[in-house]
Design brief:
The protein has 221 residues and is mainly alpha-helical. It is 81% helix and 0% strand. Helix 5 (76-93) packs antiparallel against helix 6.
């Protein structure tokens, strides 16, 4: 027998606004978990790419070193190595352009910085969804709760004698909205904080690689 306090009963007894709030919370939860899965895959991929960095530094030449980083164009270490090499060659082989007024080290540093910024921007895509869900889900759930209680009290008007059994069901159903909003909010907030810190760590790793690679290019120039 279906519980009078169950989610199915909330859906069956709820009006259009209650169902709309429930659907929004469901969509927000699905979006949150989709971002969590995608960001987790990005981190796993980055860790796999980072393991090849030590081999890169122990290679005999640049061509062999680049091979150790694989052929994935999304590998940020590979992208930095190629960007640094091409920026150095471009600065040396072009004449009569404004960037000639810059030192080659400054030009390469700027190019590497742009490459890091592009990669971290891609990593940060989706975090805005987590932040939005984490900040709006509690208020959406609160609205659903208040509306549910109001709807329940309106239904009790003219119902004759009001007992605790008659109140407990509708109020309990309304409070499920609060529980649902917390179930949506908590994973979003935790994921946002975790991925934000980890992306900052990734950016630091890339900056360290870029700094060392720039010194390597300067040494062989």
């Amino acid at each position: 027998m279906e519980s009078q306090f169950g989610i199915a009963n909330v859906w069956n007894q709820g009006d259009l606004i209650t169902r709309g709030v429930a659907l929004l919370l469901l969509l927000m939860s699905l979006a949150t978990w989709a971002v969590i899965v995608l960001k987790a895959l990005d981190i796993v991929r980055f860790k796999r790419n980072a393991r090849a960095v030590q081999t890169f530094w122990h290679s005999d030449d640049f061509a062999g070193a680049l091979t150790t980083l694989g052929s994935d164009p999304a590998n940020p270490f590979r992208a930095l190595a190629i960007e640094g090499r091409e920026a150095t060659a471009h600065h040396r082989n072009t004449k009569g352009q404004l960037h000639e007024s810059l030192d080659v080290s400054d030009w390469v540093t700027g190019s590497l910085r742009n490459s890091i910024d592009e990669f971290t921007a891609r990593l940060q895509s989706g975090l805005a969804i987590l932040a939005s869900v984490g900040s709006t889900a509690p208020f959406l759930g609160l609205f659903g709760t208040v509306w549910g209680i109001y709807h329940a009290l309106i239904g009790l008007v003219g119902a004759g004698q009001v007992t605790i059994d008659r109140i407990a069901g509708p109020v309990g159903e309304a409070l499920l909205m609060t529980a649902a909003s917390l179930a949506v909010e908590i994973p979003a907030v935790l994921a946002y904080n975790f991925f934000g810190r980890y992306i900052h760590r990734i950016e630091s790793d890339l900056e360290g690689f870029a700094r060392d690679f720039r010194e390597l290019l300067a040494h062989h120039s």
